[in-house]
């Protein structure tokens, strides 16, 4: 059983894991982004998954210190971050479309950075974590700074969510690479890149108008 200071008990933690798994496997921008990168290769997809996972830890840290509440307290803050994130995704999509068919090194494509920014620049994720994580912590303050026990519990929940996300998105990356491997050939490389670029561009537009 977890220590009382964490304000968590095994049944609550098990319920959180069940809820988290259900939410994680629901297709969303993070899944589509990793899928688009997985088409380019397993390493690129796994790097993107790692970046998204780091983004989740970033949002968890914001909730623990109460910074995420700024999205609800400052008028227009959510919209500004949304536009920045949308523009970045559109940039990635256009860049991928322009370089369609060209070789890209998985070791230097910045996939981790891109995955992190895709997640970190999505204000919906911050607001979701602000509402979701404290709900599983007894005495959670719901959007302000938490006490040491609640803060530690939220950190544990956020880390758990990040691990589950990494496992799932890692699987998505491997599956995307496997599917692409069947089609991968010089004459189809350009088409695969266009699909990936189109997905990223659509994600940017969705975030901008959603």
Automatic annotation (TrEMBL):
The keyword Transferase does not apply. Its main location: membrane. The chain crosses the membrane at residues 12-36, 48-74, 80-97, 125-146, 152-179, 191-209. It is a multi-pass membrane protein. It is found in: Cell membrane. One of its GO terms (cellular component) is plasma membrane. Keywords: Cell membrane, Membrane, Transmembrane, Transmembrane helix. It comes from the Archaea. Pfam families: LysE. InterPro entries: LeuE-type (IPR001123). The keyword Lyase does not apply. This is LysE family translocator. It comes from Halorubrum glutamatedens.
């Amino acid at each position: 059983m977890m220590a009382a200071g964490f304000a968590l008990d095994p049944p609550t933690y098990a319920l959180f894991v069940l809820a988290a798994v259900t939410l994680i496997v629901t297709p969303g921008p993070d899944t589509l982004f990793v899928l688009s990168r997985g088409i380019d290769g397993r390493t690129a997809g796994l790097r993107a998954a790692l970046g998204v996972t780091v983004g989740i830890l970033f949002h968890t840290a914001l909730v623990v210190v109460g910074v995420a509440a700024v999205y609800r307290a400052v008028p227009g803050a959510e919209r500004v971050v949304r536009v920045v994130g949308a523009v970045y995704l559109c940039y990635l999509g256009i860049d991928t479309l322009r370089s369609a068919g060209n070789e890209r090194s998985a070791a230097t494509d910045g996939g981790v950075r891109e995955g992190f920014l895709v997640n970190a620049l999505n204000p919906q994720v911050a607001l979701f974590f602000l509402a979701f994580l404290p709900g599983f912590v007894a005495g959670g303050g719901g959007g302000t700074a938490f006490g040491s026990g609640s803060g530690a519990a939220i950190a544990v929940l956020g880390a758990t969510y990040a691990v589950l996300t990494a496992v799932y998105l890692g699987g998505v990356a491997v599956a995307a690479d496997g599917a692409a491997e069947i089609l991968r050939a010089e004459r189809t490389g350009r088409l695969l890149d266009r699909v990936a670029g189109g997905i990223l561009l659509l994600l940017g537009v969705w975030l901008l108008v959603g």
